[in-house]
Design goal:
The complex is a heterodimer of chains A (459) and B (587). Chain A has 13 helices and 19 strands. By secondary structure, chain A is an alpha/beta fold. In chain B, strand 15 and strand 16 form a beta hairpin. Chain B starts with a strand and ends with a helix. The chains are: A alpha/beta (459), B alpha+beta (587).
Chain lengths: 459, 587
């Protein structure tokens, strides 16, 4: 049913919401065009529909809307976005309109931006190791193709640099299959947007990148749309064209805040800290669009940036994100302050799919054991550090002193690396063994004996 | 037949609905979406829709089926993966491809497959609801008993034997007023608990092969357990481990609002993994219900009931069922979402005021019962809880802890140092321990309950000592107490910690658990004696045999006893040497 019907019956405008009366049976989630008197038009979506009325959420500012003169055209369809391979190398705004100087992009196909849930039986279990060249990730929080792994960060921490570095270096060992990046800037500053675009240009990866930028001063309601458009594009590239797509959603905190803004405009009962009760479901409808399907060639891997308000991991945004995503990369202010880049704290970090992507034939047979042992030893190093701040380093036992030294060097040599430094996973594991060799052989209780015999270097 | 008046998300208001009942299943709109009536107001029905309502318009029709939300029960359930309203996901895939489309109608069970039916009831006997009239060998492991459905009572007039589809007649019952033709199918409404003759307390643990569970915090067959924990603390891994290795006859796994890839993992793994008890593929005793986080939220609310109703059906056949619900918080959130859309007065954290009651009703459907036909079966319910920010003072955790008897407290700091399963030994509890005493003595070993108690005491003592160490350093402790620290570490690292990803370590029989614990406690006893005789703690805490103890996990099950003896001899030899050395030095 593709009948366009125009109404001039706006009853009220409040925040991003417009109520239109005398509407004949608008469909739920239908897209509308709001025709301003000055010739401009804006898009909106039906949030609630009943006999003779529809509540419309406007993607964009509502200034200039006039109860008398502004008309609303119901387009008879849900929000469908046109996508094509010609989008590579281009930059779009948060609603998917080109903002670089060039002309419009011809689309091959149009898809509903909300997507449809992947049937769990149609998924393939992600198990291809992605080498990011970052030791802390490859060694301890291994990323695999089809995973959704957020970066839990805070304001002022190097999440942008890390995301850009991963986008630049990520590759699957021994594969030359085509790889693409879809970047969605959600409420980011002009500075940050430029940083990413320049970074893509500098490394020559712009030609395999599609960028959507919703700037901090763009309408916040548009942020509801931006990640969905980006993922629709990614799904087309992955499942229709066979690309392995890395999607960077930066920053999901801004998205969640837009969601809260909309919920409060709709006068909904607020949940924790004013965020709507359905935020888990809503976030899941974005994050769960990562994956690999059995009948498609490509894959979608998500690297989502979440800045934790007040560095608080229990804040609803990181909290609900962590319950949906397959792990998290946790950045630490303490490490950043000590000048350690990329400031990844392994103790708060996790990759749930790591086990499927590591081991003999994928990375190396000792990977699991080395990672577990490094985790355990670093946790002990933290205990020793706390103890030494109470009783003084002198009073520590020999064992604790060893762990203290291990901790320091682990941070410097293993976690710390350069912004352009691309380490192979073998290098990463070898650094790990260098550090584990500080410890006694009997204390390496998480590694199989045969691997100790092969890799452990007696001091 | 009514028409839609209003649509807001999964909530639809329809008018001219007089004649429909509360909780009737309805078909909504031209797309025939599945919905359920959750409120009636004069001629209006408030409907929660189990599918995405995008594209629905006011004015479209709504028809009621006149039936409550039900599951279809007959041979063919095992090994299946269903969505929250019992639609097989593989059949959905055949109709709509890799993505789940809307308004898809598929049969929950294969109606064409022929099953070999063996009759056991004799012609002329009196039968009623629940009576067993025969069985079908559904998988190698499970004999599927065919029971008389609700509403049928009378004399068995005719009974057949041979191969039938589930829809073909297998028996005729002459009732008071009319004759009933029976096939293998029965339907049960999911929101109503199935009745039984009697319920009793269970004195037998569900053996899971997980050391921290079996030895320290066991759950009864027919019991309830709650697993609350922040994200990343390993809730799902524990649930998967229990689904794989617990000695239940049938496992119902409800993935409620969780990750798609996790369900895929189960689907990929279970056909290849063998049940340690029977050596048959795990999938043959498993039913999966997957309503992942991106699937419609109302069906998530239903998925828990669908799961427990399937469990009750098999329980009535006399089986022990373990039901994993991961995660009940998502179920509660689905309730909250519907409640908000109904504009109900919100309770704590915007959850509806009836949340605790719904939680209690769900967990009360667990238990060991004698069903109407005299068979004794049980349902063990293990519910994961995902408290916001890991803080268990929130309503779902609190509502759950009030009605469950086992609490496995997952600990974020253990998880971050990769101590898995991250069940905190100081905060967790099992209220079943006392009633298992006899069972343990008979089936594991006379000393086992006492040793468990001693190990627990050691852990408590260790925790107290660690507090002191944090203030003054380990050097300030006497040697006998430093030895306690070492033994505590052993219990934690070498016994409680267990890798789900290591082939051998993933499952430990109770026998091996006993042997491992015995050895650690024996080390503790010798260490204490040695320290009292003046052997310095430094020497004890750097003994070679510690390495052997840390590798007890790697023992092969069938050699466990021999391996245990070897390690014990090693402990003796090294301590004897230390004590001798010390005696020489003292002279």
């Amino acid at each position: 049913m593709n009948l366009e019907i125009e109404y001039k019956t706006i009853e009220s405008v409040a925040g991003p919401l417009v109520v239109v009366k005398q509407v004949r049976n608008a469909s739920y989630n239908e897209i509308v065009r709001i025709n301003m008197t000055n010739g401009e038009s804006r898009l909106g979506q039906v949030l609630e529909t009943g006999e003779g009325y529809a509540v419309v959420q406007v993607f964009g500012p509502t200034n200039g809307i006039n109860i008398d003169k502004t008309s609303v055209t119901f387009l008879g369809d849900t929000f469908r976005f046109g996508v094509s391979e010609q989008m590579f190398g281009r930059v779009f705004n948060g609603q998917g309109k080109p903002i670089d100087v060039k002309a419009d992009v011809a689309y091959e196909e149009k898809f509903d931006v909300n997507g449809e849930p992947i049937n769990p039986v149609s998924r393939t279990l992600p198990s291809d190791f992605i080498e990011t060249g970052v030791s802390a990730i490859d060694g301890l929080i291994t990323l695999v193709r089809g995973q959704k792994l957020p970066i839990f960060s805070g304001s002022g921490l190097p999440h942008n640099e890390l995301a850009a570095q991963v986008a630049k270096q990520a590759r699957v060992k021994g594969s030359s299959e085509h790889f693409a990046v879809v970047f969605a800037g959600i409420g980011i500053t002009y500075d940050d947007a430029t940083f990413f675009i320049n970074e893509f240009k500098k490394t020559g990866s712009l030609s395999r990148t599609v960028a959507f930028i919703n700037l901090a001063d763009d309408p916040s309601i548009e942020r509801i749309l931006t990640p969905r458009i980006a993922l629709t594009t990614a799904e087309f590239l992955a499942y229709r064209k066979g690309y392995h797509v890395l999607v960077i959603l930066n920053d999901m905190t801004n998205y969640a805040e837009a969601l809260r803004e909309l919920a409060s405009a709709r006068e909904e009962v607020p949940g924790r800290r004013g965020y709507p009760g359905y935020m888990y479901t809503d976030l899941a409808s974005i994050y769960e669009r990562a994956g690999i399907i059995r009948n498609g060639k490509g894959s979608i891997t998500q690297l989502d940036v979440v800045t934790m308000p007040g560095d608080d991991v229990t804040h609803p945004i990181p909290d609900l994100t962590g319950y949906i995503t397959e792990g998290q990369i946790f950045l630490s202010r303490d490490l950043a302050n000590r000048g350690i880049y990329p400031a990844i704290n392994p103790l708060g970090s996790l990759s749930r799919l790591m086990n499927n992507g590591i081991g003999a034939g994928k990375t190396r047979e000792d990977h699991r054991g080395v990672a577990d042992q490094l985790y355990g030893a670093y946790a002990k190093a933290q205990d020793a550090k706390n103890l030494s701040s109470v009783v003084g380093a002198e009073a520590l036992s020999e064992a604790d002193k060893t762990y203290l030294k291990f901790g320091e060097d682990f941070e410097k040599r293993f976690i710390g690396q350069g912004r352009d430094e691309n380490r192979s996973v073998e290098d990463t594991l070898n650094i790990g063994w260098d550090l584990l060799s500080y410890l006694k052989e009997e204390d390496l209780n998480r590694i199989k004996k045969e691997y100790i015999a092969r890799y452990y270097k007696k001091q | 037949m009514g028409t839609i008046e209003k649509i807001a998300g999964p909530l639809v208001v329809a008018k001219q609905m007089l004649g429909s009942n509360m909780y009737d299943v309805v078909r909504v709109g031209d797309a025939k979406l599945i919905g359920e009536v959750i409120q009636l107001r004069k001629d209006k029905a408030i409907i929660q829709v189990y599918e995405d309502t995008t594209g629905l318009r006011p004015g479209e029709t709504v028809t009621t089926t006149g039936l409550p939300l039900s599951v279809e029960l007959a041979p063919g359930i095992l090994g299946k993966i269903y969505d929250g309203v019992q639609r097989p996901l593989d059949s959905i895939e055949k109709k709509s491809g890799s993505f789940i489309g809307k308004g898809i109608e598929v049969s929950p069970l294969d109606k064409k497959k022929k099953w070999k039916f063996t009759s056991t009831a004799k012609k002329g006997v009196h039968i009623s609801e629940g009576s067993i009239i025969g069985h079908v060998q559904e998988t190698e492991l499970i004999k599927h008993y065919i029971m008389v459905p609700k509403g049928v009572e009378g004399t068995l007039e005719r009974i057949k034997e041979g191969s039938f589809t589930i829809e073909e007649e297998i028996a005729v019952v002459r009732g008071k007023s009319k004759s009933h033709s029976l096939n293998m199918i029965q339907r049960r409404a999911v929101r109503i608990p199935q009745g039984f003759k009697s319920k009793f307390r269970s004195a037998e643990p569900l053996v899971t092969g997980q050391r921290v569970v079996d030895t320290f915090f066991p759950v009864a067959k027919g019991g309830t357990a709650a697993v609350p924990g922040p994200f990343g603390s390993g809730k799902t891994v524990i649930q998967h481990q229990l689904a794989k290795y617990s000695d239940a006859d049938i496992v119902v796994y409800v993935g409620c609002g969780e990750r798609g890839n996790e369900m895929t993992e189960v689907l990929v793994e279970f056909p290849h993994l063998l049940d340690p008890k029977t050596n048959k593929p795990l999938i043959e005793r498993t039913v999966l219900i997957a309503n992942t986080s991106n699937m419609p939220v109302a069906a998530r609310e239903a998925s828990i009931y669908t799961g427990i109703t399937l469990a009750e059906y098999f329980r009535d056949m006399g089986y022990n069922i373990a039901l994993m619900a991961d995660s009940t918080s998502r179920w509660a959130e689905a309730m909250r979402e519907m409640s908000a859309r109904l504009e109900e007065m919100p309770g704590e954290e915007a959850y509806p005021a009836y949340l605790p009651k719904r939680l209690a009703e769900f967990y009360e459907r667990a238990g060991k019962v004698e069903s109407r036909n005299g068979k004794v079966g049980s349902i063990t319910v293990i519910g994961a809880v995902s408290p916001a920010g890991g803080d268990t003072s929130e309503p779902v955790s609190q509502g759950t802890l009030r009605v469950t008897k086992v609490f496995w407290a997952l600990d974020a700091s253990l998880a971050s140092s990769r101590h898995f399963p991250s069940i905190n030994w100081l905060n967790s509890y099992s209220l079943y321990l006392g009633s298992f005493h006899e069972w343990y003595v008979k089936n594991v070993g006379e000393m086992f309950p006492e040793n468990r108690q001693n190990a627990m005491k050691l852990l408590q003592h260790e925790a107290e000592l660690k507090d002191i160490v944090q203030l003054v350093g380990a050097d300030a402790l006497p040697d006998t107490e430093r030895v306690v620290l070492e033994v505590g570490r052993m219990i934690r690292e070498d016994f409680l910690r267990q890798s789900a990803f290591d082939q051998i370590d993933a499952y430990t029989s109770l026998e091996k658990q006993k042997l491992m614990l015995d050895n650690i406690l024996y080390f503790g006893k010798r260490a204490d004696e040695a320290a009292k005789r003046g052997v310095p703690a430094d020497k004890i805490t750097s003994m070679k045999v510690r390495g052997e103890i840390s590798r007890m996990k790697e023992w092969i099950e069938k050699d466990a006893e021999a391996s245990a003896k070897k390690v014990r001899a090693g402990i003796d030899a090294e301590f004897d040497a230390l004590v001798r050395e010390e005696a020489v030095a003292a002279k």
